[in-house]
Amino acid sequence: MSSTGPKRPGAGDSDASAEPAALQPRARATRLAILTAAAEHFARNGYHATSLDSVLADSGGTKGALYFHFASKEALARAVIAEMVQGWGDLRGHISRPGLDPLAALLALVDEVVRGLIEDPIARGGTRLLNDLPRRARDVGGHYGRGERDAAALLGQAAQAGLLRDGIEPALVARQIVALIAGHRQICDAAADRHSLRQRVDEAWTLLLPTIATDAWLATWRAAKPG
Amino acid sequence: MSSTGPKRPGAGDSDASAEPAALQPRARATRLAILTAAAEHFARNGYHATSLDSVLADSGGTKGALYFHFASKEALARAVIAEMVQGWGDLRGHISRPGLDPLAALLALVDEVVRGLIEDPIARGGTRLLNDLPRRARDVGGHYGRGERDAAALLGQAAQAGLLRDGIEPALVARQIVALIAGHRQICDAAADRHSLRQRVDEAWTLLLPTIATDAWLATWRAAKPG
DNA sequence: CATGAAACATACCAGTGGGTGTGTTTGCGT
DNA sequence: ACGCAAACACACCCACTGGTATGTTTCATG
Q1: Residue B9's pLDDT band (boundaries 50, 70, 90)?
Q2: A128: which strand partners?
Q3: Taking an 8 Å Cβ-Cβ cutoff, which residues of chain B contact chain A?
Q4: pTM score, whole prediction
Q5: Which of A142, A219, B44, B158 could form a disulfide with B163 if both were Cys (CB 3.0 to 4.6 A apart)?
Q6: Residue B12: what pLDDT?
Q7: Chain B: closest CA distance from residue A227 (Å)
Q8: Beta carbons of A154 and A72 less than 8 angstroms apart
Q9: pLDDT beneath 70, residues of chain A
Q10: Model confidence over B59-107: pLDDT tens digits?
Q11: What is the rounded distance in angstroms from the CA atom of residue B176 to the CA atom of residue B110?
């Protein structure tokens, strides 16, 4: 009971992601192992159906290691989401290439997101947690809203660059794109066939792009895309 | 242990929905009360976070009543899904009005589905269960696939009636429509604002319909729709 | 090499929740 | 009225799980 013990990073105050950044390399490795194993279990069985014991069995860690790094199961889940969000943030810089118009950048961004939703356990677990976590524990609507704003920003730049048809509202289209991805991911997940996500999103683009983009942009795009 | 007891409808064989249809009116009432309360809890907290004690407290029933009608918690959840699916089946007949072209019928069908996703606890709980239920317990991809086939059928009729533009593939568009609805529902649910679902789906139509429907159909549609 | 904190390991606890066994009421046929 | 099954009520069980308390190892630092 005495508070003479060391202030453990996970059991600290109530902020979501402290990340003391003073972790020894071994600690970072075990933390990542637990986080990844947890994300995989969350992606497969959801939040409540995932037991910490099973996660620890897969990760090779123990209860002590877990509760040293994370204050609770909920904090562990939030850490998975935070890791996913950070990955999406890093993705922005990874996309920007010179000579890439805003619309093509949006295409590339979505492609990377889809890639993560298929391959990356963190992204797969995180997206599922957005719906499985109890309401108070998830930043309500914040993550989807951010995706919508990011897409709307790129679409706004595309509109100013004259790449979009007249009357196309960036915010509206952005909402549809995010919903499309979320919906297809959900359907693929329900069918246990997440690899078909790429094809479904490609089909969505073939239907959506002629609606929003100018003929000139479509011509250059069709000329540039493989196949 | 002796098998002299009555064969209880829920605890019967392994088929999903026996529905003995010989239930006394009181039994049907309690069954529906439990089913509805369970659907509400499933919709709010998901499958695993829902305790049978809490739904029984809400429904007024007891463990005895529950396990008389349903063999297990999983069977209860499957019954909610089955009820939702049956409601969607009945919806087909409820839509068909004379003088309604296939495309308008699709619009009406989607509108009724959206209405159910906002108001009907069975539909709200059932859709959530499609993702929360363990994989073996949910008809993998069957329900979404059926929605896609239904939409594709109506779009096929619309194409044959000359209501769609050239080059529009019914199956492809149907997949996008189902994904759109599923995605928007998911986003609205995450934001705890399910009433905005109608507006979001309306926005999707304003973006999608000009792409797939002929100008003639759009003219009559814009003339007929309120507002 | 001593020392204290960081980074784990292990045994254990207490609440919870799905499921069961048995008793009790309701309703229907005769 | 009587019997019997349907339809429920209630007490109980126990496996499981998140969390904790305490002991043990690793590592940086002087």
Answers
A1: low
A2: none
A3: 45-49, 130-132, 134-135, 138, 140-141, 143-145, 172-173, 175-176, 178-184, 186-187, 189-193, 200, 203-204, 206-208, 210-211
A4: 0.91
A5: B158
A6: 41
A7: 19
A8: no
A9: 1-22, 140-141, 227
A10: 999 999 999 999 999 999 999 999 999 999 998 888 878 789 999 999 9
A11: 13
Query: How many H-runs (helices) and E-runs (strands) does chain B carry?
Result: 10, 0
Long-range pairs, B204-211, Cβ under 8 A, ≥24: B204/A176, B204/A179, B204/B180, B205/B107, B205/B110, B206/A172, B207/A172, B207/A173, B207/A176, B207/A208, B207/A211, B208/A207, B208/A211, B208/B173, B208/B176, B208/B177, B208/B180, B210/A211, B211/A207, B211/A208, B211/A210, B211/A211, B211/B165, B211/B168
Q: Hey, what amino acid is at B144? A: Y
Phi, then psi, of A164 in degrees rounded to 5: -105, 150
A3, two tokens:
């508070």
3-class SS at B44?
A: helix
For tokens 């959506």, name the residue. A208
Give the mean model confidence (pLDDT) for residues B194-218.
Answer: 97
Tell me the pLDDT tens digit for each residue of B94-113.
887 878 999 999 999 999 99
